[in-house]
Design a protein that fits this description.
By secondary structure, the protein is an all-alpha fold. It has helices at 3-25, 60-64. It is flat, with a radius of gyration of 14 Å.
Length: 68
């Protein structure tokens, strides 16, 4: 297994752990339950003060409705 595959596997494991932790807390994994999702990227096309994953509620149940 090369370094790229190990890194990719590690990133996927970390992502799944973060999603699991946020599910237990009832929070949106994208905004960490805050309802806002600020991305430091000039190409971000939506309102940075509104999390598109949970529609600004910060709740995990709203995040699962249309995401992963």
């Amino acid at each position: 297994m090369n370094l790229w595959n190990k890194w990719t596997e590690w990133r996927e494991t970390a992502k799944q752990k973060r999603i699991s932790d946020m599910e237990q807390q009832g929070k949106c994994p994208d905004c960490k339950g805050r309802g806002i999702h600020i991305m430091p990227n000039e190409y971000f096309q939506t309102d940075p003060l509104h999390c598109p994953g949970c529609n600004g509620s910060g709740m995990y149940s709203d995040w699962t409705g249309g995401n992963y």
